[in-house]
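[Meeting: bench + compute handoff]

Bench side (C.D.) handed over the final construct sequence. Compute side (W.E.) agreed to return the predicted structure before the next meeting so the bench team could plan truncations. Sequence as handed over:
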Amino acid sequence: MKYDWQYEPQPEWFDHFCDQFYWFRKSQNPLWVERGTFGLLAIKQGANVLELCCGDGYNSYHFYSIRATKIISVDFDIDAIPHAKKYNQAKNVEFRLCDIRSEMPEGIFDNIIWDAAIEHFTEEEIAGIMKNIKARLKPGGVLTGYTLVESPTGEKSLTHHEREFKSKEDLKSFFEPHFKNVKVFETIYPSRHNLYFYASDGVLPFDKEWEHITWK
């Protein structure tokens, strides 16, 4: 944990075993569990899932793989994908090295997950990625993800973040041109203000029409 995050350059991905075995106990912060759980809520049993910017692949294995039939998990980092294959491989998870700005996998998916990564892209890049996401979601398919709120000082939380978000409304504005239904909600801890999002042309988790078929 100290080697990666207290010295430059900071990595583009995080080893979540640091959370599981060290940081959770030290910080008492359940953020790492929230992210996997809120993403899982939108996944129906047997779903075909595309995970963008998967990093170490921790969530692929520990959260999404129990419910999905197939997960394609991608990242552009040449160190992240070998790590994911070594420590978080599952029979229904395929890890691929690719840059979603130009190489997003083809296919049609029930769910697309973009967790802790939208802030790594410029506004122009986000717009292009969003169009490709929409083209790959089934009717009623759900985009889910997580990001963080920009510091009141405007200082980026990580040096390689391109676009941090000022509020729920700021983040929501990036999804509304593409989806009929968008939901952004927050959790706040002493060290971080978190934003979670769901976007779809269909029903979203926590809607009145939402049925808990994910648990069947």
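W.E. noted at the follow-up: The CA atoms of residues 156 and 191 lie 14 Å apart. C.D. will use this when planning the next construct.
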